[in-house]
Prior knowledge:
Elements: H1 2-36, H2 45-50, H3 57-80, E1 81-82, E2 85-86, E3 91-98, E4 101-106, H4 107-117, E5 119-121, E6 127-129, E7 140-146, E8 149-153, E9 162-165, H5 166-189, E10 194-202, E11 209-214, H6 221-227, E12 228-234, E13 240-242, H7 249-257, E14 266-273, H8 281-320, H9 341-361, H10 363-370, H11 376-405, H12 413-426, H13 430-457, H14 464-506, H15 522-578, H16 584-615, E15 622-626, H17 627-644, E16 648-652, E17 659-663, H18 664-681, E18 687-695, E19 698-706, H19 737-747, E20 751-757, E21 760-768, H20 779-792
Parallel strand pairs: 16-18
Antiparallel strand pairs: 1-2, 3-4, 3-7, 5-6, 7-8, 7-9, 10-11, 10-14, 12-13, 12-14, 15-17, 18-19, 19-21, 20-21
Amino acid sequence: MDMMNRRLNLKNHKTIVCVIHLLFLALMFAGVGTMYLNDNLGVGITRIHSSVYEDTDEFTQYFNDDLADIFQYMEYNEIFATGGSIDISKTMLEMTFGPNDTRSYSLNDIIKYLQSLGYSLNGDFECIPVSVDENRKPAMGYVAWSASEPDIYYTSLKDGMRHCSLEEISLEIINTLNRYYSTYKRLIESPSNLHFRIEYIDSESEPKRITSFSNDSTLTLEQAKTYGRYACLQGNSVFYDTNFRFIDLDTVSALSAGNPYDTKTYYLLAALDTSYPVSDPYADNYNHYVRMQNYYFLGFALMVVGGLTAAASLLYLLSVSGKQEYGDSRITLSPFDQTSTETGLILLILLAGASLLAGRYTLVRIAHLTLPEESWDVGEKVIYTAIVYLVCLIGLFSLLRRCKAGILWKNSLIRKLGDRLSVFFTGQTFAGQLSAAFIAYQIANTVLLVTASYLYLKWHILTLTLKIIIGMLLLLWLCVNLWIFYLMFRRAADRDRLDLAIRHLAGGETTYQVDISQFSGKIRETAENLNNVSQGLEAALSEKVKSERLKADLITNVSHDIKTPLTSIINYVDLIKRENIQDEKIQRYLEVLEQKSHRLKNLTEDLVEASKASSGNLKLDISRLDFIELIYQTNGEFEEKFISRRLDLITSAPERSVFIEADGRRLWRVLENLYNNAFKYALEGSRIYADVSVENSMAVFTIKNISASPLNIKAEELTERFVRGDVARTTEGSGLGLSIARSLTQLQGGSFEIYIDGDLFKARVAFPVAEVPPKVLPKTAEAKTEDDEGRAESEGQTP
C-alpha cells in the first residue's frame, strides 16, 4: 500500500511539474515577445534602463523634423496667407494647355475643380476622394509655376516644363497646403511643448525692419534654458548653443535661406518643455517611450522568472525520469525506450514530421481563423516551435532513461555493427585497419556533405520539414567527425600509455604493468604482450639475482669454512718448521705443504674478491691519478720478476702526465694482475710491451706478450672465471686474475678488452682523461702503500 502511494505521489508530481514547465516556458516566450515590442532593440538593457527619452535619436530627430516644418511654413506663408490668414484668392498655379493657352488658377479655383471631380476637403485642407470617376479623361498640360514648387518657374518648353494632369498638380498643391496648415495648427495655433522664435533684423535700415516667426514672442535664451532642452542659432556665428544631441545642417541652411535681408543679424531660438505640460506629439511620444521601457522590464522579468522556473522544473523531471517511486534507483523503460538508439531517433524524426504536417493542416488553419492576417506568420512560428520542442523533449527524456539504464550505447546499432567489424578487424594488421577506417570515413563524409550541399542549393524552395532534415544531416556529420576525433584521440592516448610503459621498462622497472582494461582491439594484444615481456624480464632478473646471491653466498661461506682450517694448517706448518727436523724428506714435505696452503689461501681470497667485483659490492675511493706514473711504478715492482725469466719489458708513454679518475688501490690490482699474467704465461726470453697513449680523450694502457703455450681459446673466454690460457695448467694460477681485472676496471668507469692473434696476447685498459689535473696527486703512492699492506697478509699471492 505504501509503495502504491509513493508511486502515485511521484506520478502526480511529474504531471504537475510538467504542466508548470510548459506554462512557465510559455511565460518566458511571452516575456521575450514583450521585450521585442521595445523600440530601442540593440542598445542593451543597461542603456534602456539608464537613458531618458530626450537622449534618444528618435526625440532629437523629431525635434529637427519640426524645425524643418517651421521653415517650410515660413516659406509657404507668403504663398498661402495674407495678413496671417489663408487667402483663397491667391494664385496657386499657372499651366499651359496649348499655344497661347496659359491659364492661372487661384486656391479657390483649385478647390472648386477638385470638388467637381468628386473630392472633398475637410477643415484641415485634407483632400479626400468621395465619388471620383476613374474613367474620366484628365485635362493634360505643362506646369509653368506651382505653389508646390514655388522656387521653380518655366517660361518655355525648352526649360523642361513638367507635363502632367490638372488633377495631379492640384492634389499636390492641396497636399502642400495641408502640410502648411498642419504645422500652423500644431505649432502655432495650438498650445505646444515646443517654443520657438525666429527673427531676421535689417540693422542697416532706419528704422530697423524686423521679420519674426514664433509661437512665443517673449521667449528668451534664459527662459529657454529653464524648459529643459534648448537650441540657439545665430547668423553672425558659426557656433550654436544647444543641449540637443545634434542639429541638422539643413536647419542651419534653411535659417540662412529664409533671411529676407542682406545682413547676418538673425537668430533661431527653440526650447522644449521636458515637463510636457501640454498634450501634444512630444508628450505622446514621451509617454510611449516610458510605456515601452516598462514593457521591456516587464518582459525581462517574465523571461527570467519563466526561464528559471522552466529550467528548474526541467531539471526535476530529468532527475526523476524513469523512476516509479522516490528512493528507488531502478529505472523503468517504456517499450519505445527498449528499441535501438538509432531506431528511436528515426521514430522521433518521423513523429516530428508527422506532427508538423498535422499542425500545418489543423492548428495553423485555426490560427488563421482566430488571428489577424499580420499575425499569421508569428502564429505559425509559435506552433511549429512548440511542436518541435515537445518532440525534442520526448526524445531527451527517452535518451536520458536509456543512459540511466546503461543501454544508450549497448542497444546502439552502431555499437553492434562496430562489434562485428571489430571481430573482423582484430585479426588484421594496423595498416589494414587504418586503410579500411579511412575509406569508411571518406565515404560517410562524402555522402553527408553532398546531400547537405544539394539540399542547401535548393534552400529557397524547401519546406520547413526538409530544412529540419538538413539540420539533422549537418548535426549527424558533426557527430561523425567528433566520433572519429574521439577514436583518434583514444588511439593516441593508448599509444602514450604504451610509450610510458616502455619507458618504465627501459628504466629498469620490470614490475610495471599496463592496465589491460583501458585498451581494445589490436592494441590490446600489444599491451598484453608488453605485460608478458615485463613479467618475463622480472622473472629472469629475479632468477639471475637469486643465482648471483646464491653464488656469492656459496663462495663467501665456502671461503670462510676453508679459511678456518687453512689458517690452522698454515700455523701448524709454521710451528713444525720451527722444530729442529733433520730429515730432508720431511722438510721437502713441509715446503710443499706450506706452498700449497698459501696457494689455497690466495685462491680463497681471489674467489671472494672476484665475487665482490662481479656483483659490484665494492666501495671505491675515486681520486685523480697520474696514469703514467702508476705504470712506471708497476714496472719497478715487476722488474726483478721479469729478469728472473729473462723477460724484456719495453715501455712507451707520453712525456707529460696523463691524469684519470679512479680508485688507486683497485687500479693497482688491475695492473698487478695484468703484469702477473704476462710474467706467468709469456714465452721465456721474449719481450713484453707496455704502451700508454691518449686516444679520443681516453687514457689507454696496452700490454702485449708472446704466449709460451698455444692460445687455443677465444679472447672473451679468458675473462671468465677459472679459465686459463694454459690449458695443460703447467703454470701456477687460479684463472681469476683477468676476470677480477675486468670487473674492477668496469666498476671504475673504464673499459677492459683482450685480443688474441695467434700466440700474441694483448690486453687493453682505457679510462676517460680527467679535464683539469690537481696540483698534488699523492694517490698513486697511497694506493701502492695500501695495496702493499693488503698483500703483506698473504705473501706470494698470485692471480
